[in-house]
Design brief:
Length: 197
């Protein structure tokens, strides 16, 4: 007795790969990097006193230090690097979701964000070589500069792919007035009976 296995034909969307598959993969990479950056810099921010010199007032009689006037150059660079890493990590998380869900403009936004951060960390690395002479700062600056350069290259390819294959525009809204009425009726505290539908 022969058993016939009938295979259902795959849908057209399953047969053809998405033309923006690289963008989707880049979005996942951005989400991972953004999560690690935002969490790690949030923790580093609060524990900076373990390796960073304490900020002290340079004027006699003034007990409260001011960041602009009292911080040394390496303290200012470190503070800006941590703040920008935290904010850009949150930005990468958001852009990653945009790339995965085919949001138009997410590729260009990623391009500019990663370009600014790559330039900043290459400048940080240069200052670490010239002024700081600290091996730890040089290593951190080099790792971050390379990381943001790789993110910049991924963003460039993603932006080009989105320009070549633009995401489809949603013509119909996902929420209609009928959906709103159904939700209002479902959440109504009145009893649902025949006299009170």
């Amino acid at each position: 007795m022969q058993s016939k296995t009938t295979e259902e034909p795959e849908s057209e969307s399953e047969q053809q790969a998405s033309p923006r598959a690289f963008c989707h993969a880049t979005g996942f990479v951005y989400q991972s990097i953004g999560f690690l950056l935002s969490v790690s810099t949030c923790c580093l921010w609060s524990a900076a006193s373990c390796w960073q010199d304490e900020l002290r007032s340079t004027e006699a009689g003034r007990f409260i230090p001011e960041v602009i006037t009292d911080a040394s150059m390496h303290q200012l660079w470190s503070m800006v690097a941590v703040v920008l890493s935290f904010l850009s990590g949150m930005g990468l998380l958001t852009i990653g979701f945009g790339l995965q869900h085919d949001r138009p403009g997410s590729g260009r936004t990623a391009f500019w964000l990663t370009a600014v951060m790559a330039l900043f960390f290459w400048a940080y690395l240069g200052n670490a070589f010239i002024q700081f002479s600290s091996v730890g700062r040089i290593v951190v600056g080099l790792v971050m500069a390379v990381l943001w350069t790789v993110c910049f290259l991924l963003a460039g390819v993603s932006a080009r792919q989105q320009k070549k294959f633009p995401p489809p525009k949603q013509s119909e809204p996902g929420w209609t007035s009928r959906d709103e009425d159904d939700l209002r009726n479902a959440l109504s505290p009145r009893s649902q009976d025949k006299t009170n539908p």
